[in-house]
Amino acid sequence: MPSPVLKATDLCRTFQRGPQVIQAVKDVNLEIAKGEFAGLVGASGSGKSTLLNLLAGLDSPTSGEIKVNGTSLDSLTRKELSSYRANQIGMIFQTFNLLPHRTALENVEMALYFTGISKAERRKKSISALERLGLEDRLDHLPNSLSGGEQQRVAVARAVVKEPEIIFADEPTGNLDKDNAHQIVELLAELNRNNLTIVLVTHDENLAVKYADNIYRMDFGLLAANGGRIRE
Amino acid sequence: MRYQDVIDISLGNLWRMKLRTLLTLLGVIIAIGAFVSMLSLGAGMQEQVSQQFEKLGLFFTIQVYPERDVDEEVSEDKPKSLLNDSALVRLSQLPGVQLAYPFDEYQTKTTINDTTIDVKAQPLSVSALHTKLFSRIETGRVFDSDSAKEVIVNKEFLDMLDIENADSILGTSIVVSIEVASFDSGLVHVFKSDGKLIWDRFKNIKFDSLANSEYRSRVLTRELGGAAGRFIDGYMNARIPVSDTLVITGVLHNSRGRSRTSSIIVPLATGRKFSAAGFSGDMTSILGGISSGSLFQASSDRITLEYSKVTLNIEPGVVHGPIRDSIKAMGFRSFSYAEEFEEIQTVFTYFNMGLAVMGMIALFVSSLGIVNTMLMSITERRREIGIMKSLGADESEIKVLFLVESGIIGTIGSLLGILLGWTVSRVISMVVQAYMKEQGADPIELFSLPLWLIGASIALGLAVSLIAGYLPAARAAKIDPVQALRYE
Where do the structural domains in chain B lie, given as residue ranges? Predict the structure, then answer.
């Protein structure tokens, strides 16, 4: 097995809701190899999105450790963690999370604002990313004038434009019809074929089975036995 | 994140919320406008005073007065110093003094084109006329020499004659005359009054009754009182006229206060002819003569007479303090415009501080508007902040983004506020100037917008907006991206 690009060890995340302590993620141990298409499945509230946020550095674990290419996220400064999000990972959300007042092109460009590249290069890369996703005639469209599938493709373009190592996709098909859902996952699979690591969170197990190299099942914050790995 | 990107994003966000931005801006504009117009009034008045001082050379002028009798420091046994010609020489020899000239004013009757008016005359040297204090010649020129048969009149003189065109009076001859009273005329009246000689009066005295002390006392009181009365009557009424014909060479602007000039200014040597002839009949001169003990002195011995004021012209850059100390040591009082100006400056500083405080209150109110706008903006853009953080924005970048937004409001608000303040001050200034013109006064510029005020207003507007924006910006930076991304 190739060296893991992502490694979680004894990962825990608890939330305090009044007097109640909720354990969203419990002692998760996980290894995702470079170039792997990982499917994280589970019912709603199973903790898969929380785990994804922890791996993406958007949230901090209560205990345990996450290593990216051997570097612990815990050891990073706030700025280094921001840089990790800006340069090493791309994120795709169920609700697309596009800025409604910015055009498709500007939304993609936004991902490059924090990488420090020039305006001209930013524009060039963004146009290229949108063209690759078949949105060359939608550059100046605001999100509300795009279909759901197109919006998600813009979100994918935004995730890939900075050429990250890992893409975290949190229920990217949740708001799409079947055809668009397959199109989006097909896009992710194509990116994966170019050696991009994909972590796909989905409640649609069939989709995961069809595209993922490995499937990890979450249940009440726990990763299923044998490391949660269902298929090798 | 690049600076240009931060500004672009911030401007875009402000533009998106046009109405709210405009209303917040309006608050800053009005506050800065009020601040600018109030402080420009203070600066304008300060500048006006400073310019007047500069124009009249008052920064280089010290005026010397005789010590007052009521002054505590005049000791009983020390003789009072006389501000006379010998004092004038000593004053002119003080280090740093360029020129010393007296203020020796007397009442004259001046006839021009068959019209005779009572005006006060002041003899002055040509060198004194070349000082800034007398530089406000409206038309014409100063005298050729100290003995020239020439005269300069001021605007007050023209007003008395209802002459509007100052140029028209240049070259006109006037007859300046004074009637001087003399000791002789007074004495003659003591011996002769109402056609009766003094020995005619003696005939009425019962010499044999003089042994009676009551009668003697009554007679002495009557005769001595009568003699004194007849002397004063003769002194005041039997005066000798002294006159000279002089040509008007220039017209001077009116001055007020301590730098006031007499209605007519005559060359020093020419003017001395009048003052050397004796006292003019006005009560002030006579009382002055009585108080100085020089009433009966020979009129040619005027060196012992006192001037009411001596003006010293000081070399630029010379500190007035030591000169004033020397003047005090000579037994005179002094007044320094430069030192007075420092006190005026202090008053202006307090005045400006008061105005600034009022402006600051307005700015404080406007800063609440900025805080409100930014807080609302954060609530609305919570999800956007989450997206930006997920894309790699650091807390500091989010904070800078919001600070730049409030900073832009502050900067644009300050610039437009300065423009508003300037416009308001221009309008008020125009109205005031029009009113002053209508009232016949010289229009003055009440407002001034110095560079420091522009700089201070921008700096203050920016500082207030950044302070107001800091708390919301810090709050935005701390937003949890996971929570924000779920926010609808």
Answer: 3-55+342-486, 105-182+239-303
